[in-house]
Every structure is written in C-alpha cells, then in structure tokens.
Design brief:
The complex is a heterodimer of chains A (376) and B (374).
Chain A (H helix, E strand, L loop, with lengths): L2 H26 L3 H22 L6 H22 L5 H23 L7 H6 L11 E4 L2 E5 H19 L1 H9 L1 H6 L4 H23 L1 H16 L5 H26 L3 H19 L5 H27 L5 H4 L5 H5 L3 H13 L3 E4 L2 E4 L1 H17 L1
Antiparallel strand pairs in A: 1-2, 3-4
Helix pairs in contact in A: 1-6, 1-9, 1-10, 1-11, 2-3, 2-4, 2-9, 2-10, 3-4, 3-9, 6-9, 9-10, 10-11, 10-12, 11-12, 13-16, 13-17
Chain B lengths: L9 H24 L5 H20 L4 H25 L4 H24 L5 H10 L7 H20 L1 H9 L1 H6 L4 H23 L1 H18 L3 H23 L8 H19 L5 H30 L7 E2 H7 L6 H11 L2 E5 L2 E4 L1 H13 L6
Antiparallel strand pairs in B: 1-3, 2-3
Helix pairs in contact in B: 1-6, 1-9, 1-10, 1-11, 2-3, 2-4, 2-9, 2-10, 3-4, 3-9, 5-9, 6-9, 9-10, 10-11, 10-12, 11-12, 13-15
Classes of the chains: A mainly alpha (376), B mainly alpha (374).
Chain lengths: 376, 374
C-alpha cells in the first residue's frame, strides 16, 4: 500500500466518521432527508461565495455553503409552519428551487470559469494526495488539507455530542418532556442543523453530495438495527462507516471505478445484510421467532385438543394420528410434525396410532387453558 | 410537425415539456396527497444503475432500452423503500435517503467502471442529472406521448380507487379494496412518469416537477379532480414557459432549471394569494374576524352595563368601556362604527347606551351559537 492509497483511505474513513456521527441523530429524529436537501443546496452557497470572492479555494466558500445549508432548513421549516405545506412537500419544494438557481447562475455567469458541477456531485477524493492539496507548515508536510479539515470537523462533532449528550438524548427521544423540564429542544435542533451543514460541506469536497447522504443515513440506520443504546449506536455507526470507507476504497481499486460510488455500494450492502441477518431485529430472526412462537402455540393447542377428548367415546377417532389434521383443521404434514414433537418432548405417547397424554403433557395443556381463561 | 415556431426544434421542445409537465402534475397530485413527495426524488436517483446496465446489456443508446432499464431499477427502488419501512424499524425518511444514495452510488460505480476513466463519465452523468430538454426531437415527443397517454388512461380508470386510497386508506381497506395493489399501481405509474421525464429535465428537477404543481394546485381547490387537472395545467404551463424562456436569449440556458424556477414562482404566488388557503387571505380573514369580534364585545359590554344599572337612563363612558375591554385601544373605533350602524346611541356627551336594534342584533348573533355551554 503506497502512501497515497493510505491517505485516500484515511480521508475516506474520516469523512465516514464525521458523517456517521451526525447521521445517528438524523436517523433517530426522522430528519434523514434534510441531509439530501442540504447536500444539494450547499451548491448555491458555494456559487455565491465564489462570485463574491472569485477564488475557488477561499475558505469563504465553506462559510457560504454552511450558511446555505442552515438557510435551507430554516426555509423548509418556515414553509411548514404556514400549515399549508407538509414537511415532505416542503423539502421537495425548497431544494430543487435553490439548486436550480445555482445551476442557472453557473450557466449564465461562469461560462469560462472552472466550477465543475460534476465534481460537486461526485467528489474528488482520488485527487487527495496531489501536491497542491497538501497542508504545509514551516517546511513540514502535514498530509492532505482535506484530511486536516475532516479531522477538525470530527473533533467539533464529538465535542458537540459529548457536551450536549444529555440534551441531545432527551430532545431526540422525548421532545415534549424536554420542553416540560424547561429546555427548549429548538436550540439543540439548530446546533444539529449547523453541524450537519458543516459536515456535509466538508465531506462534499471529498465524496460529493449524493454520497454525503449515503454516509449519513446508511451506517446510522445499520447501527440502529443492531442496538437500542444511543452511545453504542454512535460507536457502531462510526465503525460501520469506516468499514464502508476501507471496503469501498478497495472495491473501487479493483474495479477501477469511482471511490465515492463504491463506498455507497458497500454501505448499501452492509445495510442490506443487517436488514436480513441482524441478530435481534433482522428480518430472518424476526421470522424465526414468529415460527418458534407459532410452533409452541400449535403444540399447546394439540395438547389441549387431547385433554378435551381424553376418556371420551370419540377419543379413538379424535386423537388418531391419521385423522388428527381433519379435526384440528391443519395441514397434514404439519400436524404430523407437531405430533412428533409432542411425543419427542414426552408430552404424549403413541399407542396404536392414537395419541395419549402423559402427565407432563396434561400439565402443559391445563396451564395453557388457564392462561386462556385468564386472558378472557 | 412542430416546426411552425421561429426557432428550429423549439416546437417539439415546447410540446415535449408541456406534455411532461401535465403528466407530472397529475401524478404528483397523488404523491403529494399521500405524503410521498420525496418518493419521486428517490426513484429518479435510483434509475441510474438500471440505465447503465441497460446500456451494457443492449449495447445501445436507444431511448426505449435505457427507459426500460431505468424503469426496472426505479421499480426495485420503490419496492425496497416500501419494504424497509414496513419490515424494519427504520423509518420512511431513512429508507428513502438510503435507497436514493445507495442506488445512485451504485450507478456511479457502474458508470465509472464501464468507462474505465473517472473523468469521461461526466458527460453522460451531467445529462442524467440535468436533462437535455433542448435536444428533444419529434421522435422523443412521440415516445413521451406513448407513455403519457396510457398513464393518464389508467388514472382515469382507477380514479375512484386512487381517490379512496389517498384520503381514507383504512376505509378503503374495510370496503375490501386491494389497497396494497392500488398503492403498488400508483408507485408504478410514478416510476413510468419519472422514467419518461428523466431525459428531459434530469434527476433533481424531476422531483420538483412532481411536487410543485400539486402543492400549487392544492391551494386553489378542495376537489381532487380539479386539483389533478389544475396541477397538470400548472405543470404544462411552466414546461412551455421554461422551454420558451430558456431559448429566447442567444446564450443557451438549461431548460430544466428555468422550468423549476417558473413552477416555484407559481407555488409561491399560490401559497400567498390563493383564496381560502393563501397566507394573505388567511391573515385578512383573521384581521376581519378580530374586528367583528371587537365590535360585538364592545356592544355586549355596553348592553350588560345597561342591564346592571337599569332604571337609570344614563349611558356609560368610553373610559369605562376601555376599562373592561381586552383591547382598549380599539374601543373608540368600534364605538364609532356602532354609532354609524345605529346599534348604539349617544344619550349625553360622551355617554352611550345600546339601542333596541343593538340588543336585537346581539340576540340574533348569540342565538346562532345555540345554548350557552355550561
């Protein structure tokens, strides 16, 4: 691995971590789509700042872009507050409009200026190790500029989360309670919006606007499927983000494709795997649990059926293993397997194709009936 | 056939964008009412991988092949979004954001992989992102029409079903309608419209074209059929205006953004000035209502005072009325208005009593309110 490769991966990881930290709160507060809106509208901030300063590397571009991000959110919220437009429609109205203005401004005024829209959308992480993009101080090379910026953003984000952890937690999970104890959740909301905007703007240079959305939403949502604790979710989503960065980089390396695109693909694959195979909340374990519950219930039902006919004239007919499925109205194959399970677990005995309860089976059946009567 | 306009090719551009605008407006109505405004945004981004795979598979840049690919990946994305929010605790907003960005990122990866050169990808990508309305040909317009007409006919046939699902999903379910299938059908129509429009206006602006006309139309009516048609008209109108405006100057301005800005302007005006739902209208109504309320409360105060101090025929002063009013500064104007209307008379200088007409007026007002609440 060359130094250039290492630096690109470091930057990718730093970006992923910064985005994941914000993303956790976006996902929990159902604000994920604001990242989509912000990542589009920072363009207008960049364009306006660029026209004012005339310099593509000016730090004012960052300020302009962040302001545009915050402005977008405020605009969406004030539109929502009129009560005329719902949140989803408000987002859908604001960001295309601002984005269109930016595109028009670029196409009208900067024909011969290098303001590459595609680079904005796709990012230029691959250019990280270039000599012009390095941070040099007193003759020493401190690595790529964007890496330094990203690390600064991570520190700010972590600082924000640690300082306001309690406030973030209460305003995320119970905004009404937060208000009741005299803490206005709106300030935390604004702080979060500011932090999302700054992170989006800084990441944007590296991975492009669409991938910012992927890195904010996917690792956080993946972590959300794995844990119930906020602190663990934060750590997990950072780890998943870093995994996306490294795996994405090597995928891109082998395919000779866009790094940003590969990172998003890996993020999607990780989310998909978790969606199906997460230990607690994965689709398969949910299905499995449902199946086990279903099986337990059927076993109890079979035992109850046996108690009802125990010692009656029709016992030979009702409890006959051949015709059992007709009386229970179950699938024949399934009835066999439930009956087999009853025998296996010593709840019933099979005598001449007739099932008879054991004492253990009788107890389980009576307990089930007891629960049933208690419920009703 | 569309060559009658002065700029060559402009005719088909205008026809195409108008058709697209109408289609987007009509279908967008359902998306906005079902709180799925951003579904369009997600689906349109998610068309990218399908587009590229279709290009690889058929090895052609024919519109229909690319559209087919885009439609397939758009449909998959729509199903993924529905699936994530239905089968896990991840909410719809995150499901949309993940699907949008991951599909798009995957498409980006495919695109760069196909071209083997990161910078060469940009040309195709720019077209996907921003569209190329200016290069619409007669052929494209016919293709657009071939998609638009079946979509509109479907909407017409399933009108009642769509209406019911939009406004009262659970009622529709209780009536035994296949609600889930209807929702899938609506999503499929949305995908069709998006696929039809991608080449013209591009991804970002596609979502605006779906949301904005519907929001604007909602301001003017409470009836679904009028809303759908009005949204279509707004969409078509901004399509035409965008196409014409962007072709006026000598420099070529991209058509898509102009269309979006135009429809945004319509939304802005509608939100402000539409009767009954516009902000200006609501403010005016609020102001008028508060005036009437002030008038009534002054009259009722005067009447109560007169009743309590019965026997004496002297009236009550402005200062007294101000003292018991919640808005003292408005009292003089209200009294003057009451005098003008003949509901109050001035018995002495600066002393007022309600006339019999005033008592009647107030009686009539309160009788509308029914029995007083206890």
């Amino acid at each position: 691995m060359t130094q250039a490769q290492l630096e690109i991966q470091l930057l990718a990881m730093a970006t992923a971590v910064a985005c994941s930290l914000c993303g956790v709160f976006l996902v929990l507060r159902r604000m994920s789509l604001l990242s989509d809106a912000i990542s589009h509208t920072v363009l207008i901030g960049i364009v306006i700042a660029f026209f004012l300063t005339g310099d593509m590397t000016s730090p004012w571009l960052l300020v302009g872009a962040t302001t545009a991000g915050v402005f977008t959110v405020l605009l969406v919220e004030s539109l929502q507050k009129t009560g005329v437009v719902r949140e989803d429609a408000a987002i859908g109205l604001v960001f295309p409009a601002l984005f269109s203005i930016a595109v028009l401004l670029i196409s009208i005024f900067s024909k011969n200026v290098h303001l590459d829209m595609d680079a904005v959308l796709v990012g230029k992480i691959a250019l990280t190790p270039l000599p012009s993009r390095r941070l040099e101080f007193g003759g020493y090379d401190f690595g790529p500029k964007s890496l330094a910026l990203m690390i600064a953003i991570i520190i700010v984000n972590i600082g924000f989360i640690i300082l306001f952890f309690k406030e973030l937690k209460v305003s995320t999970f119970d905004p009404a309670f937060s208000k009741a104890i005299g803490f206005n959740p709106y300030w935390i909301h604004l702080g979060l919006v500011l932090s999302v905007s700054t992170t989006a703007v800084a990441s944007f240079d590296a991975v492009g606007s669409i991938l910012v959305v992927a890195l904010m939403a996917a690792p956080a949502a993946t972590a959300y499927l794995l844990t119930d604790k906020l602190s663990i979710m934060l750590v997990l989503s950072c780890i998943i983000g870093m995994l996306c960065a490294v795996l994405g980089y090597w995928l891109a390396h082998f395919l000779d494709a866009s790094i940003a695109g590969s990172m998003a693909t890996v993020a999607g694959i990780l989310f998909g795997l978790t969606f199906f195979f997460a230990p607690e909340r994965g689709l398969f374990s949910v299905w499995q649990r449902a199946k086990i519950r279903d099986r337990k219930f059927k076993l109890a039902l079979l035992l109850v059926h046996l108690t009802q006919h125990e010692g009656t004239i029709r016992e030979l007919e009702e409890c006959n293993i051949e015709s059992l499925h007709l009386h229970l109205r179950w699938d024949e194959y399934e009835t066999r397997s439930v009956a087999f399970e009853a025998v296996e677990s010593f709840c019933a005995l099979q005598e001449n194709k007739v099932l008879r309860l054991t004492p253990k089976g009788r107890i389980i059946a009576l307990e089930s009936l007891q629960i049933g009567t208690n419920l009703s | 056939m569309f060559e009658s306009l002065s700029v060559p090719g402009l005719g088909s551009v205008v026809a195409g964008t108008a058709l697209l605008g109408f289609l987007c407006g009509t279908l967008g109505t359902f998306a906005v009412l079902r709180k799925q405004s951003l579904m369009g945004d997600a689906i349109s981004h998610a068309c990218l991988p399908g587009l590229i795979l279709a290009f690889l598979l058929f090895n052609s840049k024919e519109s229909w092949a690319l559209m087919l690919g885009a439609a397939i990946s758009g449909t998959i994305a729509a199903m993924v979004i529905l699936g994530i929010s239905r089968f896990s605790r991840v909410k719809e907003d995150s499901a949309l954001a993940i699907t949008l960005s991951v599909f798009f990122g995957f498409g980006l990866m495919l695109l760069t992989w196909v071209q083997r050169r990161p910078d060469a990808a940009q040309a195709g990508l720019a077209r996907f992102l921003f569209g190329q309305a200016a290069t619409l040909l007669d052929r494209d317009v016919w293709l657009l029409a071939a998609i638009a007409i079946p979509c509109l006919i479907t909407v017409f046939i399933f009108w009642k079903h769509f209406q019911l699902v939009c406004f009262d999903r659970s009622f529709a379910q209780s009536l035994g309608f296949p609600v889930f299938l209807i929702e899938v059908l609506l999503s499929l129509l949305l995908v069709m419209v998006i696929v039809a429009g991608l080449e013209t206006v591009g991804v970002v602006l596609m979502s605006a074209l779906l949301v904005a006309p519907a929001v604007a139309a909602r301001q003017w009516t409470n009836k679904l059929e009028i809303m759908a048609i009005l949204a279509g008209v707004f969409g078509a109108f901004s399509g035409i205006a965008g196409a014409v405006l962007s072709n006026i100057g000598k420099t070529s301005i991209p058509t898509g953004p102009v269309i979006v800005l135009f429809i945004t302007l319509i939304v802005f005006l509608s939100i402000l000035f539409a009767p009954a739902r516009g902000i200006v209208w609501l403010q005016f109504k609020h102001w008028r209502d508060s005036k009437v309320l002030q008038l009534d409360s002054v009259l009722s105060n005067l009447l109560n005072l007169a009743r309590e101090h019965s026997g004496k025929q002297n009236g009550h002063s402005m200062a007294m009325l101000k003292g018991i009013s919640s808005n003292p500064s408005g009292v003089p104007r209200s009294v003057h208005k009451l005098l003008e209307m003949g509901l109050v008379s001035e018995v002495d200088k600066g002393l007022y009593i309600p006339t019999s007409k005033g008592a009647e007026y107030l009686n009539e007002k309160t009788s509308h309110m029914g029995a007083p609440l206890k």
